[in-house]
Amino acid sequence: MSRYILNENCIFSEESLEIENQENAKKIKMTPMRARCLSFLIEKRAEKVIDKGTITTELWGTRGQFITDANLTQLLYLLRKDLRDVGINDFIITVPRMGIRVNRETSVATVTAPQCLLKEKKIKPETILISTLLCLLSLLATMGLFQAISTS
């Protein structure tokens, strides 16, 4: 399961099915289908157009043949609403009579583990730097004390 940073300030977690704006702490719990749709769109963001048949097949599998355009339209509407609620506008762009595409102006980056921990625990980089410096100073002081004892 991956995590993504969308629009440089929102974290989308496939595992927890949540998208959170880090600036205002607005968090949305998504349905599994909406989260799966968002994951699929993120994976296919490089494509010029994603046709509706590809989306329904990916999301509903063999049942996709029984899914109407209205089902997909409703899913995309609700996904757009979730994204707008956390401050991401125009992530999904409709291409008339063809399908949809992901707005290339919206940045998408995969989150690495240390970034996840920083965001989840709300640890500021300055705190990590200060802690590291204190550990180094403590280590240097201990080494200096050890050298002073061993030379006497």
From TrEMBL:
Q: Which residues cross the membrane?
A: 128-149
Under Gene Ontology molecular function, one entry of this record is: DNA binding
Which ranges of the sequence are annotated as binding DNA? 2-104
**In the UniProt record, does the keyword Zinc occur?**
no
What are the residue boundaries of the OmpR/PhoB-type domain, all occurrences included?
2-104
Provide one Gene Ontology biological process annotation.
regulation of DNA-templated transcription
Q: Does the keyword DNA-binding apply?
A: yes
Which named protein is this?
Answer: Putative membrane protein
Q: What is the lineage of its organism?
A: Bacteria, Pseudomonadati, Pseudomonadota, Gammaproteobacteria, Enterobacterales
